[in-house]
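[agent] plan:
  1. take the single chain provided in the ticket
  2. run structure prediction with default settings
  3. attach C-alpha cells to the ticket
  4. add a short note for the reviewer (M.T.)
[agent] executing step 1
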Amino acid sequence: MSQFTLYRNVDSTSNETYPYFVDIQNTLLNDLNSRVVIPLSPHTALQKTDVKNLCPIIDIDGTSFVLLTHQITSVPKSILKSEVTTLEHIRYEILGAMDMLISGI
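[agent] step 2 finished; step 3 output follows
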C-alpha cells in the first residue's frame, strides 16, 4: 500500500457520501492492520466549504471532490481493495491541509 493512493469506498452504507479515501499513512507502517485515510466527498454536496487550505478541491476523472481533512480516520487495511489512482502529484496540497488541521497554518 502506498501513501497518497486513492481508493474507492466499497462500503455500500457510506460510499454515496464518501466515494473515495486517500491513504495518507507512510509506507514504513505497512505492517499495521489499519491505514490512516482522509475521505473525499462530491464537491456538489459541500458547496459551502470555504476553508480551501483545509479542504482542497480535487479533480478525479473530471469530477470535483472535496478532501475532508477534518474527518481524518483509520480504516481496516482489508477494505482498501479498489485502488483508483495515485494523488502523489498533489501531495503538497494534502500535506498542507493536514498542516492546517494540526497547526492552523
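[agent] step 4 note for reviewer: Residues 5-103 form a domain with the SH3 type barrels. fold (CATH 2.30.30.110).
[agent] ticket updated
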